[in-house]
Amino acid sequence: MAVFAPRLGGASWSALLIGSRCRSRFAEVMASPGDSSGAGAGSGSEPPPSGDLRSVLITSVLNLEQLEVDLFRCAWTPEQRDRAGGQIVGQALVAAAHAVSRDEQVHSLHCYFVRTGNPKVPVLYEVERTRTGKSFSVRSVKAIQHGQPIFTCQASFQLSQGSPVQHQFTMPTVPPPEELLTQDELIQKFLQNPNVAEGYRKRLTKIQAQDVPIDIKPVNPPDIFSSEPQEAKQLFWVRARGYIGETDMKVHCCVAAYISDYAFLGTALLPHRQYRIKFMVSLDHSMWFHAPFRADHWMLYECESPWAGGCRGLVQGRLWRRDGVLAVTCAQEGVIRVEQTPNQSKL
């Protein structure tokens, strides 16, 4: 969910699915088409589209202004007024990536949301070069508002190394994205149902109006007209909206960090849909990067929640390339508070 966390109105389909919420300097420093880091390896390649279709995640959302060596700022803009936890994670990784060599690639990050942020105030990112080793380097990042840290992150980078020790889980068998409706199409379908309550219709319309820079196709969207508990698991195809291209793998990792926060913590609510959500916010967020991928290509996001209790929920996620390669593993824990009275029907 979000470091800038609003109070949520109910354990609705919208809360479960959405969860939280010129070349940039980012792209100039870390990206050049045809880079040998192999971001597109195993995921297919495609020519750049005609026209200016570069992803807004590169040109705006994850773009930072460098103020000094290892000091960056993300200025507030109108389209960023609902800045979410995924954006903070992605921007922190952008800042850390500026402080390593081009040959080093991110392999993990571990983050803590320590204070509620203000979406109307710029965020400063301060990088500490904690360690630079022969194979691994660690960079610590602190996100600051009003002189206080709102978020901390440690990112670890590794020089490429081969090993005969390799294994992975098997990718779930699901319909391809071409056979599924997008999130916007699903919302439009629900809005056409005359039985949807007016309050819920307004929430869906508000979600539909948001300019989310991610394409999402749920594999098993929850039934919005039912409060029956469901398995704490959901799958959906995701990709960055717009073109990123084959470039330094760190660019795609930063975009994936942004994407990974969407709908993630909401997975823990699926078995508890009868309750109305009062408050939901992330406590920490971790990621491990295993294989090259393209964040602007469809990837399957497999999310599951093995445990919830004590006003907390734990979720785990896996991002799969279409060819069955496990690209990223994620984990997150967050605060979840609900009203004790069961929620009423959406009808």
Provide a descriptive summary of the structure in words.
This protein has 347 residues and is of the alpha+beta class. The protein has helices at residues 13-18, 25-30, 56-61, 85-97, 183-191, 198-209, 249-260, and strands at 65-68, 71-74, 104-113, 123-132, 136-145, 148-159, 214-218, 233-240, 275-289, 299-309, 312-321, 326-342. The longest helix is centred in the N-terminal third of the chain and has 13 residues, at 85-97. The chain has a 12-stranded antiparallel sheet, covered by helices on one side. Strand 10 (299-309) and strand 11 form a beta hairpin. It has 7 helices and 12 strands. Helix 4 packs antiparallel against helix 7 (249-260) and helix 5 runs antiparallel to helix 6. The two termini are 27 Å apart. Residues 1-29, 31-45 and 78-82 have low confidence and may be disordered.
